Amino acid sequence: MPEDTIPCNRCGCPNEDNNYKCVACGAVIHEASVVPPSRDIANHLALAILAAIFCCLPFGIVAIVYAAQVNAQQARGDIAGAQRASGEAWRWIRVSLVAAILPYLIVAIYVAMLISVRH
Ligand SMILES: [Zn+2]
């Protein structure tokens, strides 16, 4: 499978793309996999916007505010702050999900009770 091979930076020998080191000379192929996790912090922005539109607007907006803070904190180099904001964004996405589902759940329970009373 020639499409799945990449040339080694040091010796040019073809390696499988999922190889960590070159099979011929042992040079590290995937530098990206040892990069510090500075850009691995999920901002959940897309989910937060979806939560605001489809679930619960007030909680979704709180999630969007925190999601926006993730990138801002990260740009300032505050990784701990970015991770905290990421966690808060995720928490408010879940809150808005629950807030969106809860009314349906209550209606479903109410309907189930009505049906069980009739029979
Ligand atoms: Zn090599």
List the helices and strands and how they pair.
Blueprint: E1 5-7, E2 14-16, H1 45-55, H2 57-75, H3 79-118
This protein binds zinc ion.
Number of domains: 2
Tell the overall outline.
elongated
What do the pLDDT scores average to? 86
If you compute it from the alpha carbons, what radius of gyration comes out, rounded to the nearest whole angstrom?
24 Å
Name a few traits of the molecule.
single chain, 119 residues, mainly alpha, 2 domains, two-stranded antiparallel sheet, 2 strands, elongated, binds zinc ion
Textual characterization of the structure:
The structure is a single chain. This protein is mostly helical and 119 residues long. The protein folds into 2 domains: 2-34; 37-118. The chain has 3 helices and 2 strands; from the N terminus they run ββααα. The chain has a two-stranded antiparallel ribbon with strand order 1-2. A hairpin with a 6-residue loop joins β1 and β2 (14-16). The protein is elongated. The relative contact order is 0.11. The model has no long low-confidence stretch (mean pLDDT 86). Residues 8, 10-11, 13, 22, 24-25, 27 line the site of zinc ion.
Short synopsis of the structure:
By secondary structure, the chain is mostly helical. 59% of the residues lie in helices and 5% in strands.
